[in-house]
Every structure is written in C-alpha cells, then in structure tokens.
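Lab notebook page, bench 4
Experiment: in silico fold of construct C2
Operator: M.H.
Input chain length: 272 residues
Purpose: comparison with the prior construct
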Amino acid sequence: NLAKIDNPKKVIPTTIEIVDIAGLVKGASKGEGLGNKFLANIRETDAIIHVLRCFENDNITHVDGTIDPVRDKEIIDTELQLKDLETIESRIAKVQKQAVTGEKSAKRLFEIFQQYKNVLEQGRSARTVVLDKEDRKLVRDLHLLTDKPVLYVCNVDEKSAVNGNAHVDAVREAIKEENAELLIVAAATEADIAELETYEERQMFLEEAGLTESGVSRLIRSAYTLLNLETYFTTGPDETRAWTYTKGMKAPQAAGIIHTDLDRKSTRLNSS
C-alpha cells in the first residue's frame, strides 16, 4: 500500500532465510550418515522449523515404512538431545572446580548446567528449562540445539489442510509441554497455488480449498513470531522498504538498524 502511494523506484521487502537441512538420521549424534555436518548446520540457525509427514499415501514411501510423525519427531529430538548432553557434560567438567572454590558465576553456571543435564537425561529438550534474563546471559554462548525455538510444520493432504487430522492431533498432544508452535500446511496444495499467476487466481483457489491465506504466508508470519521479530517501514520516491527488528527494542535501537550512526547519536542524546 505504501508503494502504491509513493510509486518508488524500488521496493525492498523484509526477508527470513530458511535453510533446508535434510538427511538427519538416527545415530547422527554419533556421526551416522552426515550427522556431524547437519548438527553443525543446525547449531548455526536461530530457530528450527521441523517438518513432519502427517499424511497417508501409498505411492510415497516413508524411510521407516509407516506414518508416525510423533516417532519421527522423537528420533530427531533424541539425536539433538544426545548432542546437547555431550556439550553440557563437557561444560560441567570445565566449570565444576571453579564452582567448588566458591566463584559466584561459576557456581550459578554449574547449577544451570545441572538443570540442563537433568532434563536432557530424561529425554526432554533444553528449552523446557525456564531461566530468567540474567541466567540467560550467563549461558548465551552454549548454543544448545534443543534450546532453540521450534515450529512444527505438519505436512497434510489437501482434505486435512483446514482442520488437520489424527496425525496432527497426535503431534499437538506430544508437544503440549514443549513451549513450541504448530502449523498445518498441505505442501501439495501450496505447490498448486505457486503455479497460479495472479493474486485473484490464488485467492479463488484458497477460497475453494476453505483457506483464508496460503501456508507460505502463515509460515512467514509464524517464523517472525518464533524469532520474536517485527517489521517497520520507510517510504519515499526512491525506495519503500521493510526493516526487521527484535520485538521490544526501543525506538533509537530500532532506528539504528537503518544506520548505526543514528543509533549512537540517539543514545548520546537520550543519556545527556
């Protein structure tokens, strides 16, 4: 709408980079398949979108022979948890001596590491450990795989695109204590939508399928929520542009995304 008002020379939308990390298999934490490479790739991400097969189709085989998204989820969870447990045990060994001698930060780190160790040994993810803001600062360099925010995308057939199915219900039940999000998407339907050339054709297709918007649009919005991001816009004759910032940022810091000097000048003005 802003672009329609200003008719700028260029329009720059906001973006989120989604990386397809395929091939994570049972035993990855011990180096099976390309396990170490894929686990390293996951460590570099800010969040995880875990796509689960929630549809039946005899023409598309499953590596394990049956359709069970909860089992599939748990296989991946286990591999990530085992790698995190390895990380935590290594950190405990390093900080334990300092904790015994009474160093305050080391003692608190040791306590937090023990909390992580306990939940991981129970087959639960690190994100289930609730920490306050100060404790979060202490462990921000851990980069635990199962501490990353996660969105489960249930890939369903066309008839289940609106309300889901029994597989989706099972996933929803399995993640209820995980502090994770769930999204229902029919990938085959999304492929059909992508082939349509005009907005009007896409909207007509969505209406016929009983949907109000595409799964891609919902995925983008869910990803923003997952990463705690929001967008503001600037516009003029040269450019209309979307800028992404972290929710809760103060105005000078959000404006500083456009130009770092603006952030520094605003900070000096506010502190004088």
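Observations: The chain is about 45% helix and 15% strand. The longest helix spans residues 69-100.
Next step: discuss at group meeting.
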